[in-house]
Amino acid sequence: MSEYTLKRNPFCASAGLHSLVEICLLAMEKWQIMQWMGMEPLDLSPEFLQNEADLTAYDQFREFGSFLDGLGGLSAEWFSYFNGRELTYNIPNPQVWDVAQNSSSAANDGPSSEPSRPMEERLETPVGSWLPPAPRAGRIVEDFPEDRHGNTVPATSRISDEQHAQIIFALEAFRDVIGPNFKLPSRHALTRYVTACFEGFIRNLPFIHHTWRVIETAMELLLAICAIGAVHCFENRISRQLYEAAKAILMARILREQDRFGPGTADFLHFHKHGTDDRVMEDRVLTTGVSELDWGSWEPIDTVPTLILLTGYAAWAQKVWFVQDALRLQRLLAQILRDLGLQDDEESVPASIERRTATAWHDWVRKESNRRAKLSAFAFIHTASIAYNVYPVVRTSEIFLRLPCTTREWNALTVSQWHAARQTVSIEQLYLQDALRLLLTKSSRPTMLDPLPAPLGNYILLHGLIQRIYLMRDLLLPLVNQTSLPREEAETLERALHSWASGFRLAPESSLDQQNDHGPIPFTCSAMLALAYIRIYQNLGPHRQLDSRDPVQIAAALSRCPPVTRDDNIISAVLYATHALSIPVRLGLDRVARSQFFFWTVRHSLSGLECAVFLSQWLSALACTIDSAPLTDAEFHILQWLRRVVEEAYAFVDFDDGDFEFHGDPAFLSLAVLKVWAHFFKKNAQWPFINVLGESLEKYHGMRVIAQGLPVPANRINDKEVWR
């Protein structure tokens, strides 16, 4: 038995055991738990808990366990990390499911207050749907069956020879803007890029409908889609060319059509000219005699999805100057959003009287696409704010839009499917501000939103809550330190996150399987939820300098981050940070890292970075104070879980330094979590930004090794001065 196990606080045992039984739910009988742990049956009622700290741990463990169990069930699998035993499960035969359900119902004292979940979801527990499936056969790009999410990619994404010729002809109208050397890729390449963008970027942030048509879209939007798709296809040279062409056409279009936006956009363009090139392009655009028809069909709203894609490309590219490009584009996007209006264009027709016609469907698609484009723009702008610690240029107080519709409505393939989906809608989605206000309302019980938001709506709400954390820190900065928020505000935000998680767990479209029929957004939400909890207690934003793209500079900034204070209140943040690490470890670090196309977005990586640093600092705090303050029951169980996760990684990962020796003490684990995350990030082959995160964590890990006086690995001797 290790030293930290012996120093566990014996007076907290009942609290941790009760929490674990709650998390385990019905997966195993109480007598089995007692038998395995060599204990006599205990009174597990909350009244038996020792003190207020135990009650806090109980609530935090129960909330975390309920959240994961409601998404397909991690409960018993998670429990096995604590008792050192692997559990096996008998999946019930679907033919006898009704019998099992009736027996289960008879055993309960009363009807369950939680809506029943679909049978196929329950059959996947405990380990089937809480994690996304690993790619098959180690492929870098996974093939997905069309019947799984065929409605995600436009049916006409395959570009014919005739369409390719039409695009080339239309592109000639912009030849003065894009220059004589730009050459459109082949039709096969364009097909590949469009498909990759929709199956990757758009599927993770669905703001373009599957009825989108190649020939009917604005040229700059088509090229922006292809630029992102080329990145997903690992064709970086072509993606850069497509990005530059799309940006040039977009800026020329806005200059030419600035009267259709508003004075704010015109003023922005006037004050943000880079220099001679911009002035030359403006003169060329404003003096040309090319007719509007030659530039193709276009509406001002088309600039929003185009700017989202271009900002997405620039924000995560490798070169430093791309970051400034991204920040400039996002400021332009924010101004255009204000000019177009951050409110619904018109109220939707009530679902009960919706007509079953193609015209009604396409009219609805137009309205919903516009709403989703604006909300997605807000989310993406805020993601850049998180990454680069810049003040949010679009705030939730400016947005008067309803949350997005259900996935079933959005993914409907035909008029009949759409109309049937609409008929199931009894209440339209809440407005964003109303939903946030309800979540932040002080209440002794979780606040349930009615109707429950769709996955994209839940994702937007999380950004709203994370933005509040940033703004509260900004307002209170002279009065508080840079670690945690004041307790009253922290409790308000934790209540809101708890309410959000409770509703998210009950939503029928929520599942942590990124290949589920409703898309991978719930998987992304779980990463953002971890980030939100961490941001309450650690303000890592000013201590990253990710815009430098310099791993040494980033690592040095991380080393200046204020330490995490050991506190019972941060248990929820620690739980979610540990869960974030367990996902890629469980699926295989290298396999996931090399298959991040559909799987792992930059948003996951931003969350993973903060999870890594936060968890490492928490473990360091344990190591430094364990002699004077024994482990609480909650800390003990998390440490056991984390030990198993890291041990799994060390057993199967080929680390670059060849160091595979594993120890279970907190000091070792504090360095190990950095090492595991760094290895994971460095194996990404898609976005260079993620590789920079990996190199930065590796440097930060080295600095921590030297600071603790540990030996430097033989193949890292030359890095020693850099680590200093």
TrEMBL record:
<feature type="compositionally biased region" description="Polar residues">
    <location>
        <begin position="102"/>
        <end position="115"/>
    </location>
</feature>
<keyword id="KW-0863">Zinc-finger</keyword>
<dbReference type="GO" id="GO:0000981">
    <property type="term" value="F:DNA-binding transcription factor activity, RNA polymerase II-specific"/>
</dbReference>
<dbReference type="Pfam" id="PF04082">
    <property type="entry name" value="Fungal_trans"/>
</dbReference>
<keyword id="KW-0862">Zinc</keyword>
<dbReference type="GO" id="GO:0006351">
    <property type="term" value="P:DNA-templated transcription"/>
</dbReference>
<dbReference type="InterPro" id="IPR007219">
    <property type="entry name" value="XnlR_reg_dom"/>
</dbReference>
<protein>
    <recommendedName>
        <fullName>Xylanolytic transcriptional activator regulatory domain-containing protein</fullName>
    </recommendedName>
</protein>
<feature type="region of interest" description="Disordered">
    <location>
        <begin position="102"/>
        <end position="128"/>
    </location>
</feature>
<dbReference type="GO" id="GO:0005634">
    <property type="term" value="C:nucleus"/>
</dbReference>
<keyword id="KW-0479">Metal-binding</keyword>
<keyword id="KW-0539">Nucleus</keyword>
<dbReference type="InterPro" id="IPR051059">
    <property type="entry name" value="VerF-like"/>
</dbReference>
<dbReference type="GO" id="GO:0000785">
    <property type="term" value="C:chromatin"/>
</dbReference>
<dbReference type="GO" id="GO:0000978">
    <property type="term" value="F:RNA polymerase II cis-regulatory region sequence-specific DNA binding"/>
</dbReference>
<feature type="domain" description="Xylanolytic transcriptional activator regulatory">
    <location>
        <begin position="218"/>
        <end position="500"/>
    </location>
</feature>
<keyword id="KW-0677">Repeat</keyword>
<dbReference type="GO" id="GO:0008270">
    <property type="term" value="F:zinc ion binding"/>
</dbReference>
